[in-house]
Automatic annotation (TrEMBL):
The chain crosses the membrane at residues 37-57, 99-122, 134-154, 174-194, 242-262, 291-310. GO terms for cellular component: plasma membrane. The keyword Transmembrane applies. Residues 1-30 are annotated as: Disordered. One of its GO terms (biological process) is transmembrane transport. It is found in: Cell membrane. This is Multiple sugar transport system permease protein. It comes from Kribbella caucasensis.
Length: 319
């Protein structure tokens, strides 16, 4: 004879175990949060709030400063978008934007070409390849202050080693950091110098992931080295290439120490980029509104460029 459990929850005669208690209304059907989920949220919440304050609060304050006519101490009067209008109609802004564009294009593609060439060279069996690789990393590893000081010693004055050697070779007296055109060229070359090791590492990692049998099959089919590079190497490393372009674009546009330590933005603003112009507006001219407006315009351009290159990454189809 079977004994059914009573309403008080007595053990069942068949199993000898108490019946399962019904689920609470808060967790039935997936509604509500379990105690474990609430605990995890409470543990993570302080870190999330801290990150929000660190990132969001300065952004809100900067946005407020960009629409006020004030300084670092006083907020000033609300001027709406006047600062943005003044910046976009300023000849200094467009001069800095032009140099920023040149500096970025040369920095990205110049360092990429040098880095790729060296990465391909390091894949061959050359004597002392390990030592050679370490030496090539020095421009990136050495602090930028040391590199800028060394370059100032090399080209800073008419009696520096490079101008002296150029004069002896018949090029005349060259003032690399005093002539506007030569100063812009020197800054761009310096940027390539300090950036190519990063591109070399990115390209080396991408080349290491390419299957060697692909080249063997292409060689059997009669493809030349140039055809293999154009139709095999470049497509297979395109994802890494686009990522390195995005990162280097951000590095170049936001690069303040490379320019400021070498030329200070001179002569006559010839090497003044947007980030240098923003720094001068805020900390030298004490015009916080226009300086922050320049920074926001830079951010907008970087977002557009990064989004465009990211879409190219998603379009890459590697069979």
């Amino acid at each position: 004879m079977r004994t059914l459990t009573d309403s008080g929850g007595a053990p069942s005669a068949r199993t000898g175990r108490p019946p399962a208690t019904p689920r609470s209304a808060t967790s039935a059907g997936g509604r509500g949060l379990s105690r474990r989920a609430i605990t995890m949220i409470l543990l993570v919440a302080p870190a999330l709030i801290l990150l929000l304050l660190i990132n969001a609060y300065p952004l809100v304050v900067a946005a407020s400063q960009s629409v006020h006519n004030g300084t670092l101490i006083v907020t000033g009067e609300f001027v709406a978008l006047t600062n943005y209008a003044d910046v976009l109609t300023s000849p200094r802004f467009w001069s800095a934007a032009r140099f920023t564009l040149i500096f970025t294009v040369v920095g990205v593609f110049g360092s990429w070409l040098v880095g790729m060439g060296l990465a391909l060279l390091l894949r061959t069996r050359i004597p002392g390849r390990g030592l050679f690789k370490v030496l090539l990393m020095l421009p990136w590893v050495v602090p930028i202050v040391v590199s800028a000081t060394a370059w100032n010693w090399l080209v800073g004055t008419a009696t520096s080693p490079v101008p002296t050697a150029a004069a002896k070779l018949g090029f005349g007296e060259l003032t690399f950091l005093a002539d506007p055109t030569l100063a812009a060229i020197t800054v761009c070359v310096f940027k390539v110098w300090v950036s190519f090791p990063f591109m070399m590492l990115m390209t080396s990692a991408a080349l290491a992931a390419v299957d060697a049998t692909v080249y063997e099959a292409a060689g059997i089919d009669g493809a030349s080295r140039r055809q293999q590079f154009v139709h095999i190497t470049l497509p297979l490393i395109s994802r890494s290439t686009y990522i390195s372009w995005i990162l280097m674009t951000i590095f170049c546009v936001n690069d303040f120490p490379t320019i400021y330590l070498l030329t200070g933005g001179g002569p006559v603003d010839a090497t003044s980029s947007l980030v240098v112009l923003a720094y001068r507006s805020v900390f030298q001219d004490l015009q916080t509104g226009p300086g922050v407006a320049i920074a926001f315009l830079m951010t907008l351009v970087l977002v557009i460029i990064s989004t465009t290159l990211y879409r190219q990454i998603r379009k890459v189809d590697i069979a």
